[in-house]
Design goal:
Number of helices: 0
Structural class: mainly beta
Order of helices and strands: EEEEEEEEEEEEEE
Number of domains: 1
Largest sheet: 5 strands, antiparallel
Oligomer: single chain
Number of strands: 14
Radius of gyration: 14 Å
CATH architecture: Sandwich
Shape: globular
Strand content: over 45%
Helix content: under 10%
CATH class: Mainly Beta
């Protein structure tokens, strides 16, 4: 996989185990990025250091959600990817759906199964 330029300002989720579905956080706080009012197409990089697969029924999905408001009323999925092993993966997304630009984005993790636990970081790659 290609090298991706990392910018701390584009971090959507910092390291730390997640055991339930929900919006990603940085420093324990919900992280929402304002991408501005223009159209973009990019990729979010998911670096997974650990995930629990002991019960063989655990599932993990990382989504990039968009909203027209910073409070995330009515989020829309802009792109998502299942994660099934440690390592790096990418979620391709664009912030325009139909004729609507979704200015605000966040990462959302959906976990399933008996004992889900994932430790990953998520950031929007530059360039």
């Amino acid at each position: 996989m290609a090298q991706r330029t990392y910018d701390q300002l584009l971090l959507l989720k910092d390291a730390g185990a997640v055991t339930a579905s929900g919006a990603a956080t940085v420093g324990g706080q919900a992280r929402v990025l304002d991408l501005g009012t223009g159209k973009i197409e990019s990729r979010a990089v998911v670096d997974t250091s650990a995930l629990d697969l002991t019960s063989s029924d655990e599932t993990y999905r990382v989504a990039i959600q968009g909203s027209t408001t910073a409070g995330f009323a009515g989020p829309v999925e802009l792109g998502s990817r299942a994660v099934s092993a440690a390592g790096r993966s990418e979620v391709f997304f664009g912030n325009e759906v139909g004729s609507t630009i979704y200015q605000f984005v966040r990462a959302f993790l959906t976990l399933g199964g008996t004992t889900p636990s994932i430790n990953c970081t998520v950031f929007i790659a530059k360039g």
